[in-house]
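sanity check this:
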Amino acid sequence: MQSLIVVLAAYLIGSLSFAVIVSRAMGMADPRTYGSGNPGATNVLRSGNKKAALLTLLGDAAKGLIAVLFASLLVGLWQIPQPHAVIAAASLAVAVGHMWPVFFRFKGGKGVATAGGILLALDWRCGLITLGVWLILAKGFKISSVAALVAAVIAPILTWYFIPQREYLYAVLVISVLLIARHHENIRKLLQGSESRISGRDESRS
């Protein structure tokens, strides 16, 4: 029962869609009603409000970080059996919450920023390297879907290398697969050569 509470709490934290929350707080249109319709930082950036986009990015990353750290705290306090398995499940739950948030009719983002926060919580080396790769590719190609997809591929490899607990590897693998699946439209556009750049109508961020 305590394990279920930890996982459910992580899902509910993930269900806090900062793209929608920040937009409402700043009197902006719902990001699900314009651009790509994706409630993430890149779509919020289309509004022209860079501050709102940055707050969305930070909020989505922070909830991934906080959910996993909170799960780790509860697992320790409650002395839950198989702690690594529970933390891994909570890591997956916060990502699922972001992608399918119960508070926003299950219409969520793609999970890039939240996945970054999760990785930072699991192992700071995995998180920093993955985020570094994302930043380098995003800056170099100016297409955040390319950066996101490459980051999704290398994240499980880094997890396997740095983290001995296999439960975390399985969780990161599933998150990466879900993230890639959420980018199916971006992949189609990349193959067609019609994917937009970050400075234009890009649709790939969280």
